[in-house]
């Protein structure tokens, strides 16, 4: 069921890498709506994270929705493996290859939801002719590769443009990078509904102090919903 309510998607890039199962269960118990999995290849981005077997191991712990952000190039050859690993949604970067239209078709062919991702330098207009293949547009507000970076403000105007292009089509807008209770209202006011947050969710907490995750998630959600009410 499509809805534009605010969804908080903690990125497990900021979790304890020795304890993913418990970390996923903790963030979900503390109010996470989706679980965001950052896949990096050391080539498209200067960092390495999770292959399909890792994602498959996360799967049984995720009771909500597993959102797999592929920062890999080439990407097409790996779509089937990440779908089989249990992704509910796969997002691929427009900059990762010459044929994003084909990439989105390949994701859809696996029977999972499909999203396109735009780096900070990629214009909003680049998604105009592929929107009908997308369940989500992910607008990066940092350069992909690492958690804990500073929010890039040009993503706000881009969000506004993409939101206008979407109109009443059932397509989510997700924002990823530097989301905090301070930046969340800026992108929600511009039209975003899914907020990824790594450091702002995990900071100060642990599986032994999961209530901190809950307070962090609530602070982002309340700030975001405040921006909706004010609009
Ligand atoms: C960056 C990743 C993000 C990252 C966000 O390449 O796509 O999902 O984990 O981390 P924060 O919220 O700390 O900016
Ligand atoms: Zn991400």
TrEMBL record:
UniProt-listed Pfam families: Ribul_P_3_epim
Catalytic residues of the enzyme: 38, 176
Cellular component per GO, a single term: cytoplasm
Entry keyword set: Carbohydrate metabolism, Cobalt, Isomerase, Manganese, Metal-binding, Zinc
Amino-acid positions noted as binding substrate in the UniProt annotation, renumbered to this chain: 11, 69, 145-148, 176-178, 198-199
HAMAP family: RPE
NCBIfam families: PRK05581.1-4, rpe
Name of protein: Ribulose-phosphate 3-epimerase
Species, as recorded: Rhodovulum kholense
Name of the gene: rpe
């Amino acid at each position: 069921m499509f809805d534009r309510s605010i969804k908080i998607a903690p990125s497990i890039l900021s979790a304890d890498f020795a304890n993913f199962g418990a970390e996923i269960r903790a963030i979900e118990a503390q109010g996470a709506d989706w679980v965001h999995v950052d896949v990096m290849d050391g080539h498209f981005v200067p960092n390495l994270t999770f292959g399909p077997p890792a994602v498959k191991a996360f799967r049984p712990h995720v009771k909500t929705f597993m959102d797999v952000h592929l920062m890999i190039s080439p990407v097409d050859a790996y779509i089937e493996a990440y779908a089989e690993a249990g992704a509910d949604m796969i997002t691929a970067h427009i900059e990762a290859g010459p044929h994003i239209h084909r990439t989105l078709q390949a994701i859809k062919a696996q029977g999972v939801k499909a999203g396109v991702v735009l780096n900070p330098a990629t214009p909003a207009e680049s998604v105009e002719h592929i929107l009908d293949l997308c369940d989500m547009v992910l607008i990066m507000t940092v350069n992909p590769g690492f958690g804990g970076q500073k929010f890039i403000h040009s993503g706000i105007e881009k969000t506004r443009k993409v939101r206008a292009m979407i109109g009443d089509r059932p397509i989510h807008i997700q924002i990823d990078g530097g989301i905090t209770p301070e930046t969340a209202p800026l992108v929600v006011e511009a039209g975003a509904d899914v907020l990824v947050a790594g450091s702002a969710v995990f900071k100060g907490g642990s599986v032994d102090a999961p209530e901190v995750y809950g307070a962090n998630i609530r602070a982002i959600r309340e700030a975001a919903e405040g921006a909706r009410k004010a609009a």
